[in-house]
Design goal:
This protein is mainly beta. Helix content is about 10%, strand content about 35%. Keywords: Calcium, Glycosidase, Hydrolase, Signal.
Length: about 950
Amino acid sequence: MLKRSSLFLCLLLMFCLVKAQQTEKLYLSGTGNDHTVNWDFFCTAGLNSGKWTTIPVPSNWELQGFGKYDYGFAKEINKGKEQGLYKYKFKVPADWKNRKINVVFEGSMTDTEVKINGISAGETHQGSFYVFRYDITKLIKLGKDNLLEVKVSKHSANQSVNEAERKADFWIFGGIFRPVYLESLPQTHIDRVQIDAKANGNLNVQLTYTGDADKIEVELFGKDEKRFGERFRTSIKKETSKLALNHQFSNPALWSSEFPNLYTATFTLIKSGKEIHQISKKIGFRTVEVKERDGVYVNGVKLKFKGVNRHSFYPSSGRTTSKKISIADVLLMKEMNMNAVRMSHYPPDGHFLEVCDSLGLFVMDELAGWHGTYNTATGTKLLKEMMLNDENHPSIIFWANGNEGGHNRELDHLFLEEDIQKRPVIHPWEVFGGFETTHYREFNYGIGNYDHGHNILMPTEFLHGMWDGGHGAGIEDYWNAMWNNPLSAGGFLWDFADQGVVRTDKNGELDTDGNHGPDGIVGPYHEKEGSFYTIKEVWSPVFIEKREITSGFDGSFLLENRYAFTNLNQCTFDWKLKKLKTRNDVEFKAGKADAPDIKPFEKGKLQINLPADWRNFDALYLTANGPDGRELFTWSFPIALPKDDAEQIVVKTGSSKVSLKEDVKTYQVSANGIDLTFDKTTGLLQQAKNANGIIPFSNGPVLQEGVNNFKNFTQKMDGQNLVISSTFDKKESYNTLQWTIYPSGWLKMEVKYFPSAYFTTFVGLNFSYPESEIKAVEYKGNGPYRVWKNRMKGAQFGIWKKDYNNSATGEPPWQYPEFKGYYSNMYWCEFIGKQQSFKVVTDKEDVFLRLFTPKKSKDTEYDNMSPTFPNGDISFMNGISAIGTKTQKPETTGPMGMKHVFYDFEKEPGRALEMTLYFDFSLNSSSLRGGTTKQSS
């Protein structure tokens, strides 16, 4: 027994002795903005310059109160002489003797000179976004203090670097903004592994190493850490430093954005039976193929990319981020049902690519070059650094050589020569390599290309967001065209998040440099704007064909599977019936529907087995969840119509009588404690009053883009009701207004009208109400976010309570949802004033509620967004306006962005637009309730 134990210990000891050495890391800095290390620091210009102090590393020095903030369009940007001097003392482990030691910088802005113990580590590195390293083996002292000195110049001495990186439409920062660490390797070590793992299970590897070894061993492990397939070894010929390996694996789980299956590949150098050096790489089996005049195929499936452009950015730390931020960004993109992201306009942090690998996003990785280019020598060096760091990520399926003219064509061949996978190279904004990627084309121009072009269409930027324009506004038209055209490979929105940076020189103000930075779908700290939910619905991989919930509804929905790799029977579907009431006392019934067997790109039917009393509910909600349990979208379908609500809410009878007094100018009507005054000539409501005083809602209805030619008013009693109505005349007074005052004190307004022009921006009725008096609204309709004519998707039907705010999209305080704007499908609305409240009810479908006029943020010189609102303060609309983008007028974003068209000018009463509203002015301040925006649910 003793001998066996001794033998076991000897074997264990031998195992430990021969176990391969790993590449070791010793961080000199922190790992991100959530973990930093202070270094000594001296800034040569700007704030807090001219003195030694400390700074957290990694960071951008502007965000730490040093230097000067610059946006890329600043005229003085090339005059900048700002430099940062860094010092840091460190010790190297004594047991690193006889090992190669590198110092590694993952990113530094911009020119970076490095010294170890007073001696230069090598030539100055030029280029901000690339991992670079110096061999400092001969410069360090083992087990003793060492001094690292770094001089970082914010602007490069290499003008081509400034042209490619600094003269750009984004913030320009300085500093060591990504981690710095020491890297220790054995003398015999693997330098580079290039991996091509195909969907058919073929693993092709090119490996470069330094030193003396006779074998290389490769193993794959799945997510359960169990070995996948066979371990294989290959002998190494003497005096060889580069190896080609190939092995066939059976039935690997494939990598895609929908199923991001990863394996860990380990590569071990062996000499005389001893494991010398081992490295590991996360890999995914997948095949990317571009078929000319056809499309992009991944794992044999033709894809359409639902993508967004993303900067490496966080408001309080500039370009210094963290893995936590990377995870949050990718999760938000996945929540919007995106499947792709473009790196704009430079390679990202390594952890962002790791998260794309693990959570599933296709990536376009980009060599910097906004409109200018690196010279060929510099670009060659930086391209190889990018490739060395990023090449094995399965998420990367495209390379981009610069942006919008920033393409150094002399570098194109290097992408293919350096990349074992031969991934396609894109020139964003150009026709290149079989791709047409033109940015911000007008919808009609784009459709012309779709219908008559020959290249694969994949705009790498389209619908340029700014403030509340773009993104969701127009995307439905564009996506319908993209989805239905076989040459379209989808596209990428501009961009993910508002570039609002904390100004340490302005008391922490968040600055977007005017209208340069507020281009995001989410705010600087990931606040969700209305477009977030529009994109979520339009890009849902479960598409539900429009249907009305009528008495003949049988619980079925027609679905289209817009996944590429997922059968809808891998999803789950939940439904809920709700009775919507105020004060959150909602009644509901809920259940699940059997997921139908619908293959990718096919159509089928979802059947819901509803209870027998389903028609007694107000709305049906249907939620689709992906295979990972994540909600794809929740659709809402009204069951009760506005007329059904009006019948229940509006009170017409009462014990009091309607009384009328009139003078030369007015009708003065009283009923059940409500006093109403109408202008006798125009018919407009002049005043509403109850026992608590005057309700400041008046001066309406005033027609918008219609003529207020209500004339020749008469009054009569219709039973217990008083009716005041204008007289129709085809030439002089073809628009008509009628008021009915009930004994209950309720007031009914009926307007029939004709728009005054063939094309109209909007149509409806306006009233006056001082914005200073409003406290909140509670309404039944779609919410909680506002809509535009070309951004109707993403809202949910319900009862919403919204407290007043004066938020403007893309500006401080980034408070969403905004209060002011258009809201669709209004059934009723209670206007909660600071002193008085009142309620408005309609029995008509498709009525839009307009709440005041949002601030018009500063547009570009082209004034493309045109966020137009009617006159007055409160409006009830039959048609609302659209909004444009930073680069396009509303009407060029597609049919939904165009003006309304009204053809009939015959002025026949039966052809008029109609608006019916009921007013209850009996509400008082006791009905006021606190709270925030919420749905009764």
